[in-house]
Amino acid sequence: xxxxxxxASVIIIAGLALACGSAGGSKALTESDAGTTxxxxxxxxxxxxxxxxxxxxxxxxxxxxxxxxxxxxxxxKFAPESSAIGSGGSVTATFKAVSAGTTTLRLIYHRSFETGxxxxxTWEATIVVK
Length: 130
Hints:
About 15% of the residues lie in helices and about 45% in strands. It is of the alpha/beta class. The strands form 2 sheets. A 4-stranded mixed beta sheet has the order 1-3-6-5, with no helix packed on it. Strands 2-8-7-4 form a 4-stranded mixed beta sheet, with no helix packed on it.
């Protein structure tokens, strides 16, 4: 009887872990995902994590974001790679698919106060929402 209870508990816990792991289809994109196509359902969210260093004045931001298909949720979050003052690290933003459509998510790394200057880096991916 104890073996059956233990086996049942393991099966239930494993099932819950699998369900939680796949719930929402959350995706985490990085620099290496540039140029790819991401397929989502309306309501799904994903993160983009890129190298950055806000102490230099540079920041990542979407360029011409199609908010009818995709919206940014909250601000970019910075995680320094060390405790040294001025160190770089990574910045992460969350985006949510809001309605069906296809759009290009283009992110630019630039200094917003420098007008007429090309971005230092760009990142883009095609987002298809069903």
